[in-house]
Amino acid sequence: MIDLDYFSVSDPVCTLRIRESNVKHAVWKTSGETEVIQNNLNPKWIKNFRVWIIFIQDMDLHFQVYNYNSHDSRELIGEVEISLSQIMLATGQQMKLSLTLPHNK
After folding, report:
1. DSSP tally for the chain: helices H, then strands E
2. What region, left, alpha or beta, does residue 77 occupy, with left being phi > 0 and alpha being psi -120 to 50 degrees?
3. How many domains, the chain?
4. Does 79 reside within a domain?
5. How do residues 44-103 score in pLDDT, each as one tens digit?
6. Is residue 49 part of a domain?
7. What DSSP string runs through the chain?
8. In-domain check, residue 100
């Protein structure tokens, strides 16, 4: 994870947005946010996300990790998008993914 703080280490927080897969004009909806982990480049959040699913419908998951600053501002550290079906088909229903920055940054 990238360190965006000058005098300490980043304070990461993770957000999740979801939308229906393969649905034209589907809208991203905010699903939740973790707690802020102070001074940590390898955070292990305690808060988890709960997503209600319809068995026959796939969902896109968009995770964004921010550096939380004391002035209620955030800097994007990175993001990743994946479908719920990809996670469900993975061994142990777990995956390790790398965060990337958007191309327009």
Report:
1. 1, 4
2. alpha
3. 1
4. yes
5. 999 989 888 877 889 999 999 999 886 678 889 999 999 999 998 999 999 999 999 887
6. yes
7. -----SSS---EEEEEEEEETT-TT---EEEEE-PPPTT-SS---S--------TT--EEEEEEEEEE-TTS-EEEEEEEEEEHHHHHHSGGG------B--TT-
8. no
CATH number of residue 30's parent domain = 2.60.40
Distance, in Å, from the CA atom of 3 to the CA atom of 45, rounded to the nearest integer, reads 17
Query: Is the pTM of the predicted complex or chain greater than 0.70?
Result: yes
Residue 6 lies in a domain: no
**The tokens of 39 are what?**
């001074």
Q: Which domain holds residue 31?
A: 12-93
